[in-house]
């Protein structure tokens, strides 16, 4: 990816959004695994933390699926027959075929 691409700032924003989504997803998974591992002992702490992490994760997933393509303005992650999971990179816009990094 070129540092001098036209939509460089937009691609950086998308990468940051995906990193947030992955972080919240992993933290949620960790909290749920900890809950399974420790049993009900720490549920007074782990349940609220899991609920907050779930909300953060879902809202970042929603922001990724609504993230507008820098060229056509339509949702970048949608438009294909099957949208990839938000945790994975998508190479092209499903509407105008704009490649990431251009
Ligand atoms: Zn587009």
Short structural description:
The chain has 2 helices and no strands.
For the structure shown, list the relevant keywords.
102 residues, mainly alpha, binds zinc ion
Could you say which structural class the secondary elements and strand pairing correspond to? Answer: mainly alpha
Shape: elongated
Percentage of residues in DSSP E strands: under 5%
Radius of gyration: 17 Å
Topology overview:
Layout: H1 8-38, H2 43-66
The site of zinc ion has 8 residues, from loops.
If you had to describe this structure to a student in words, what would you say it looks like?
By secondary structure, this protein is mainly α. Helix content is 54%, strand content 0%. It has helices spanning 8-38, 43-66. Helix 1 (8-38) packs antiparallel against helix 2. The longest helix has 31 residues, at 8-38. It is elongated and about 50 Å long. It starts with 7 loop residues before the first helix and ends in a 36-residue tail after the last helix. 18% of the residues are buried. The mean pLDDT is 89. Zinc ion binds next to loops.
């Amino acid at each position: 990816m070129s540092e001098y691409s036209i939509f460089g700032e937009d691609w950086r924003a998308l990468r940051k959004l995906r990193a947030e989504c992955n972080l919240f997803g992993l933290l949620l998974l960790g909290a749920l695994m900890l809950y399974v591992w420790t049993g009900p002992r720490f549920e007074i702490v782990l349940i609220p933390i899991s609920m907050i992490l779930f909300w953060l994760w879902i809202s970042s997933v929603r922001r990724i699926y609504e993230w507008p393509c820098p060229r056509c303005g339509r949702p970048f992650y949608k438009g294909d027959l099957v949208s990839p999971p938000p945790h994975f990179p998508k190479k092209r816009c499903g509407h105008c075929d704009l490649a990431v990094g251009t």
